[in-house]
Specification:
Blueprint lengths: L5 H24 L6 H22 L5 H20 L2 H7 L4 H15 L3 H11 L5 H34 L1
The structure holds retinal.
């Protein structure tokens, strides 16, 4: 269409972001028994974040309401990995699983901040243009998807070797 359809960006996010976020649960449960509440809180918080943003960008609710709901979901999942049950479980670990959890925690804090900033400057204030925004989103995806995935992969394989 020559434009950048919001719906495709959100279809990408809806498929990939929940999968990334539940990795925090899987990396913990690879080394110890943890409650499934962690899994559900991470999943639901992520969905609230994305659906809030989508509803705002697609015009179902006001732009500000979408931002507030989206930020609420993000803060909720950040709380879970920093200070909630997931964070507390991770603090009691050592070795590869802990390093992985800690590193990925900062990716979802700093790396992921690009997207709400994009919503703010690209959509709420309109001060960033679409082409720049798409470029920034795609570069951010290298860290937030590819690097994140590689770290999980490397950790998972080292744990497998260690257990055998
Ligand atoms: C690979 C794609 C990733 C990791 C996308 C992540 C997207 C977000 C963290 C989006 C967050 C948002 C907010 C925190 C508030 C405003 C609405 C969103 C959806 C842009």
């Amino acid at each position: 269409t020559g434009t950048s359809p919001t719906v495709f960006r959100y279809i990408d996010w809806l498929l990939t972001v929940p999968l990334l976020m539940v990795e925090f649960y899987f990396i913990l449960s690879a080394v110890k028994k943890v409650s499934s509440g962690i899994f559900w809180r991470l999943l639901i918080g992520t969905l609230v974040m994305l659906l809030g943003g989508y509803a705002g960008e697609a015009g179902y609710i006001s732009v500000n309401a979408g931002f507030i709901i989206g930020m609420g979901g993000w803060i909720f999942i950040l709380y879970e990995v920093f200070s909630g049950e997931a964070g507390k479980e991770a603090a009691r670990l050592s070795g590869a699983a802990k390093d992985c959890f800690e590193f990925c925690k900062w990716i979802v804090t700093i790396g992921w901040a690009v997207y709400p900033l994009g919503y703010l400057f690209g959509y709420m204030t309109g001060s960033a243009n679409e082409v720049t925004l798409n470029l920034v989103y795609n570069l951010a995806d290298f860290i937030n998807k590819i690097l994140f995935g590689l770290i999980i992969y490397k950790t998972a394989s080292s744990l497998t070797v260690g257990n055998k």
